[in-house]
Specification:
Layout: H1 18-29, H2 37-50, E1 54-58, H3 61-71, E2 79-83, H4 88-96, E3 100-104, H5 115-125, E4 130-133, H6 145-152, E5 158-160, E6 168-169, E7 173-174, E8 183-187, E9 200-204, H7 207-217, E10 221-222, H8 231-234, E11 247-248, H9 259-269, H10 272-290, E12 297-299, E13 306-307, E14 313-317, H11 319-322, H12 326-335, H13 351-357, H14 363-371, E15 372-375, H15 383-397
Parallel strand pairs: 2-3, 2-4, 5-8
Antiparallel strand pairs: 1-9, 6-7, 6-13, 8-9, 10-11, 12-14, 14-15
Helix pairs in contact: 1-9, 2-9, 3-4, 3-7, 5-6, 10-15
Bound molecules: pyridoxal-5'-phosphate.
């Protein structure tokens, strides 16, 4: 029997160093806990890391998607295409604007909506009401962004890149560069590639859109004297701008990210290359060790021309052939100190969406869901721990014998 690990292995977690703690402590000892200089510093560093011109930090990856949907003026009468295999947030933000969803199927080997699945979804809908497309870089891989953009045609593409900070694609492409999307979003939830506690960003190369996103992030208000509408209120008797004045010109929210979070995010961003390298090395180890467990247990199929940063390590297990339920495998793994999770129950199967749109069949997403299991993957995991996970999975499933 394989010896138990020294610690419980969750499917994902942050790695926080003394430098991160010091960066946060410095903000806590300073004057500005929010709307201070760390926000701009973090935004600038992410602009550098992704190659995109404008970065708008906000309170979560969900808030980032919500701001993007609002900035596209999605609303009642509109629709947006979202892959069925994603986290709730990608679709929910569309509904929050009043627009409806068109769920696209995914490739059952990768979990990704590619150009073909997008075209099929657009043709199936056929309403002419689709106003945006939200592809998702599941687990860190991305389906060819240029082909997705071509399949989207004139429709704006908002890439939900929450899993894929650090992923490279094509020749010289970086997820977040917004070459093939009007906006991209990232999340800094602790299981993601870098952690800020909570946090997210919307990224764009469109300056006007960035300005709009900043305004929506802050209650729809502006302090830009040049854009004031109510001159009678904005200025004093001498025509000088009133120093206290601000104007609300549209409906917005407080989606700001604090300096405390930005300091942590900035410190973590400095380690992005190291985190990605470690994740890639652990994934290579998993791939190698899992070979004898095929075909019962298989890694995700790999996308051509993509060097993923790997947010998740997902295997596909044929539980029907195994004759064991997934919950039983998960329970046995948990007893052995190994945490796992399922990413994701397809959205069209969620009660809310099934009630709204009725039963529908998206076989790629359904097959993927039946087989998916996310194994532990996080930056301070060791290769020995990867070997332990695979050996334990082999014992439980009997796949290696
Ligand atoms: C694909 C995807 N989109 C959006 C989100 C939302 O990000 P956050 O948790 O930062 O709101 C997540 C988070 O798990 C996600 O996995």
């Amino acid at each position: 029997m394989t010896p138990p690990p020294r610690r419980f292995l969750p499917y994902g977690r942050q790695q926080i160093g003394d430098d991160d703690v010091a960066a946060v402590a410095q903000v806590l000892r300073g004057d500005a806990l929010t709307t201070g200089p760390k926000v701009a510093d973090f935004e600038q560093a992410l602009s550098h890391a992704t190659g995109a011109s404008h970065v708008v930090a906000c309170s979560s990856g969900t808030a980032a998607l919500h701001l993007a949907a609002m900035a596209l003026d999605l609303g009642p009468g509109d629709k947006a295409v979202v892959p069925a295999l994603t986290f709730l947030a990608t679709a929910n933000v569309v509904r929050l604007t009043g627009a409806e969803l068109v769920f696209a199927d995914v490739d059952p080997a990768t979990g990704l909506m590619g150009a073909q699945e997008l075209s099929t979804a657009l043709a199936r809908d056929g309403s002419g009401q689709v106003k945006a497309v939200f592809p998702v870089h599941y687990a860190g891989q991305c389906a060819a962004p240029d082909k997705l953009a071509a399949a989207a045609g004139d429709l704006p593409v908002v890439a939900d890149s929450c899993h894929a900070l650090g992923t490279a694609y094509g020749s010289g492409g970086r997820v977040g560069d917004c070459r093939h999307a009007i906006m991209e979003t990232f999340s800094f939830h602790p299981v993601k590639i870098i952690a800020a506690g909570e946090g997210g960003v919307v990224i764009t190369n469109d300056g006007e859109l960035a300005q709009r996103l900043r305004r929506l992030r802050n209650h729809g208000m502006t302090r830009d004297t040049d854009s004031f509408i109510r001159d009678d209120l904005a200025c004093d008797g001498k025509g000088e701008p009133n120093p206290w004045y601000y104007e609300m010109v549209e409906l917005g929210l407080n989606c700001r990210l604090s300096d405390i979070h930005c300091a942590l995010g900035l410190s973590q961003l400095g380690k992005l290359d190291t985190f990605c390298a470690v994740r890639r090395a652990l994934v290579a180890r998993y791939d190698e060790k899992l070979v004898p467990l095929a075909p019962l247990v298989r890694p995700l199929s790999r996308v051509a021309d993509c060097d993923p940063a790997w947010h998740l390590y997902v295997v596909r297990i044929d539980f029907a052939v195994l004759g064991m339920e997934r919950a039983a495998v998960m329970a046995r793994l948990k007893e052995a100190g190994i945490g796992t999770q399922v990413h994701y129950l397809p959205l069209h199967m969620q009660p809310y969406y099934r009630d709204r749109y009725g039963e529908m069949s998206l076989p790629g997403a359904e097959v993927f869901y039946q087989q998916a299991l996310s194994l532990p993957l996080f930056p301070d995991m060791t290769e020995e721990e990867v070997e332990y996970v695979v050996a334990t999975l082999g014992e439980i499933t009997g796949a290696a014998t």
